[in-house]
Amino acid sequence: MDDQMKIGVLAIQGDFDAHAKVLARLGVEHSLVKTPADMQGIAGLIMPGGESTTHIKILKEEGLLPAIQKFAATGGAFFGTCAGVILLAREVRSPAQESLGFLDVAVERNAYGRQLASHVHRGKSALRDEPIEMVFIRAPIIESVGRDVNILAEYQGRPVLVEQGRILAATFHPELTHETVVHEHFLAMCEKSQAPPVTNSRQLETARVAVDARPPRG
């Protein structure tokens, strides 16, 4: 891993501190992003859970929205968890709200309902042979994905970890588990210097593949 690589963690609201602690455990240089200036020199940006409508409001008030859009246009990597997925999505439902539109997925907000952070689920993934740990807290459901979106992990047959270009999105909270496999995958993405830049999926005509995204039972 490149010792000089620095990862930014959006720190305007939500569980950003948990992500920072995971990066510290991995020995990765990181910074808390609160202003446009804080984005200088980062290879990737983590967008944490929290309240997505509040995130959008603060991004505008602090002038971070144009800086994030510029970062995306120049090939910056993104990792969104829970509310971060909502921010990155092409379309948000229940109710509809503004988003960045970088990731070609449609999501439904709060579809998993309230679940205890201490309740760790396990789901199959493409990251390793054994299941990975997942914590859902009022998590969104990915209802449809574009043809360029890879599904990396599922829970009860539904996509919960997806990847498109230099964007990684998890509807669960990997930062609240004891594992670092998802963060390590994101760091590997950031190291791929020749990866294509993020493209605003609202400008793409992609065939979307519907998936069964009913809330899990039990």
Can you put this structure into words, describing what you see?
The structure is a single chain. The strands form 3 sheets. Strands 2-1-3-4-12-11-10 form a 7-stranded mixed β-sheet. Strands 5-6-9-13 form a 4-stranded mixed β-sheet. A two-stranded antiparallel ribbon has the order 7-8. The protein has 5 helices and 13 strands. It has helices at 16-25, 52-61, 64-73, 83-88, 181-191; strands at 6-10, 29-33, 44-47, 77-81, 89-93, 103-108, 121-123, 132-134, 141-146, 150-155, 158-164, 167-170, 208-210. The protein has 218 residues and is α/β, with parallel strands linked by helices. The protein is 22% helix and 28% strand. The longest helix has 11 residues, at 181-191. The chain has one domain (6-204): Rossmann fold (3-Layer(aba) Sandwich), CATH 3.40.50.880.
